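User: Hi! I'm working on a homework problem where we have to compare a predicted structure to a textbook description. Could you give me the structure for the chain below?
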Amino acid sequence: MPFETVKQSHLKRNIIIGVVVVAIIAACVLTFTRAKYRTAQSMPLINGTVNYSLADLNIVAIYVDGEEVEALDESETYTLDTTQSICTYKDGTTIENLTLNYDSDTKAFSITPFTTKGTKCTLYFNSAPGITTASLAYNATTVNNTSNPNLTVDAEYESITYSITSGSSYASVNEETGVVTGIANGTAIVQASITDKKGNNIIATSPVQIGNVSNTNRYVWGRYSTLQEIEQGEKTSVTQYQNAGNAETVSSVEVSYYTNYSISSSGEISLYGLQSENMIIDNKSGTLVLPANSYMRVKGFSDTDYGVYKTDENSYVSAYGFVGNMLWLSLYDVYPLSVMISKGSLNGTISSISSSTYPTDGTSGSYWYTYQGSDVIDPNGVTLSLSGSNVAATVNAHSNSYGGTISYQYEYSTDGGSSWTTAATTSNTTYNISIPSNAKSIIVRVKAQDNYGFTSNTYIYSNGISIIQ
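Assistant: Happy to help. Predicted structure tokens:
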């Protein structure tokens, strides 16, 4: 029996091919659409805020820092710019009075109220900025009292920890709140360690004064030369003990006199023009008349126990006995001489941290001092500002009542006051300090000195300044 080949139907094959083509086209469309919306669909919606599923929210575009993107970087932190972000109805008109919110920690997005199906949104985000400036300040407090931190930063931060980096004997600090409690009068330095949203660590430092600042007084004197002249006392007599050796062998004693004198810078009278002729007393007794207007130095038992005397026309020496091996002489009708010192011309000015360093009005050493008064030349304050790669420290100077060149010793610390480096000593009230590499903060302290000899004990501290490198 012959077989007949039946013609095969292609309908089923065509249907399958058509389904496959449609599926491919749908997949392409879906892929393109998801490229636009996948970021938004990954944002969890806050319960109780959105009335429809996320599919009902059509995100037309996403912008970050003004540039359109397909997706938000999950590792970055963003803030939603609610002033530019908008949502519209299907017809394109703007929906008013919507509240848009994006939580950067949970990555959650919400719209309140969300009641219109088919709402379309264009969202603008800004990258979360890192902190570029941070400042910390405290008001002075007293023992057992507290002071709150005044912290200012220019961006959101993730966490903050406070610590005392210098002067822990003067204050303590709550590491979470930054509240300082005074312990003893003095200056402590508080450090705030801040972590921003980008994970960067920023340091802000500030001094906190417990009790009042105790300035160093500067005491000032005028220094003068001295005028010296001989002052003659009343006529008198004096006994002299002169080493004469063994009393059994001494047969005569030489008594010398001088014809003139001079005065040393320290006020000591020196005699010169030695004369000794015809000035011998024999047999250990007798009298000898001295020449008029001559000078004698009379010693006692000690070389430092002496006096200078001037004779008149009737002066005489009498030798009349021994005390042990010391010949006992007497000098009669002589005038004791002393040096009278008075203030001369101004020699200069001198200063000190003590009010008793020099006389109020009198001599010390080779000079005459006259007290002028006291003042305070310590700075009223120190402020810092960034100037390129430098920090400019500016002194608010005190008045200078008693003259002299006032200089300031600038010191800085990059470790919260644990150690200090001297930058300069200068009369300039502003000084630029080069920022050390890797420094995260800097604080400056200043004390004053003059060219008269005064150097202050008081340091005046600046507020710290953060260094973002």
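For your comparison, note the following. Residues 376-466 form a domain with the Immunoglobulin-like fold (CATH 2.60.40.10). The first helix runs from residue 11 to 41. Good luck with the assignment!
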